[in-house]
Amino acid sequence: MRIECKPAFAALLKELSKPQPLTDSLSHSGLVMDEETEAFLSFLDTEGIVTLSDPLETDLLPVEYVEQYKRQLYFLLDILKSPQKAHEVQKRIFDARITVFGLGAMGSGILQQLSMMGFRRFTLIDYVDVEESDIARTPYRIATQVGIPKTEAAKALVEDFAFEPQVELRNATLRTHTDLDELVRGTSLIVNTTDQPYVGYTNIKLSRYALQHDIPVLAAGGFDAHLASLGELLIPHVTPCADCYATFFHESLKDWKPIPHPVKEREGWFGGLGGLSTFSASTAALDILGYFMNPEDRKAAPGGRGEFLFHDYSLDTFVVERDKECQSCGEGRK
């Protein structure tokens, strides 16, 4: 980078590298703190040319937590260009409670990566035990805990990575009559990876509840035959809701004729690679991090869906718009 400035400001750059108070740096450069000097210092700070001698020092977070997640904080510093903003984002992560429905390949994958980002408070919901076949698509610790409830295996996964974890377990199914008030109380964000009875139904139930309580929902991808699909972050009244997606697919696929599958009997035989679910879990975790970096201004990527195509390593994506007539989130809602 090339900067054109007054000679006194060039001298100030040299002085700022010394371990001394800012007032001394200004004095040795023949400067005073006027509007011009303040604007120059602000420019240096915004561009990341100068920073604090210890950018990780903060009163917002425990010292041990900062030490454990310092690589995460350095990543945020690179993106946000401000120690204060980086600490504020990490504090939101530190305080957040994430509720995860479904703890299979996708749920456990997202859970592990969130724990490695600094999330530490979770409510984990599932109703089945770990089976031997789970290891095929679940490249995480949970797949080795055969015979124990997935909730308990997932809690052990969190305890491997998170700082002073706080984990609540619910051995329950997500049904039409399920009382979500009791399950998601105090939740900052919901992650849905359940595929029973059908992922579209469970997304709609959670999305409708979340709209009423202003809670974002990560409707995870990586399900059934779409093992490397991207999920959707559903932010109330910002992105399309699950009902918008259901309407979109109902209309866009009404004339679609499926190609006959070469295997006639494949009930319970959907296969896949651990790397595919890892891809979907990783993109989901980054979507969640992006939301926590900008929750106050409600910024979000346009609604849509994508899928990594394994045969040619391409990414097929399309955009879904909010339905203005949607009875859940649109202008047409009653």
Describe this structure in words.
The protein is α/β, with parallel strands linked by helices and 334 residues long. It has a six-stranded mixed β-sheet with strand order 3-2-1-4-5-6, sandwiched between helices. It has helices spanning 7-16, 22-28, 35-46, 63-68, 70-80, 83-95, 105-117, 150-161, 180-183, 199-213, 242-252, 274-293; strands at 97-101, 121-126, 166-171, 189-192, 217-219, 232-234, 304-309, 314-319. Helix 10 (199-213) links the parallel strand 4 (189-192) and strand 5. 40% of the residues lie in helices and 12% in strands. Helix 1 (7-16) packs antiparallel against helix 2.
Summary, kept brief:
The protein has 334 residues and is of the alpha/beta class. The protein is built from twelve helices and eight strands. The strands form two sheets. A six-stranded mixed beta sheet has the order 3-2-1-4-5-6, with helices on both faces. Strands 7-8 form a two-stranded antiparallel sheet.
Please tag this protein with its features.
single chain, 334 residues, alpha/beta, six-stranded mixed beta sheet, two-stranded antiparallel ribbon, elongated
Can you tell me the residue ranges where pLDDT is under 50 for at least 5 consecutive residues?
Answer: none
- Biggest β-sheet: count, sense, barrel? 6 strands, mixed
From the N-terminal CA to the C-terminal CA, the straight-line distance is 56 Å
Number of separate strands = 8
Category by helix and strand content: alpha/beta
Q: What overall geometry do the principal axes of the alpha carbons give?
A: elongated
Beta fraction: 5-15%
Within the largest sheet, what's the order of strands? 3-2-1-4-5-6
Number of helices: 12
For the residues shown, what is the average pLDDT? 87
Order of helices and strands: HHHHHHEHEHEHEHEEHHEE
Rg on CA atoms, Å: 24 Å
Helix content: 40-55%
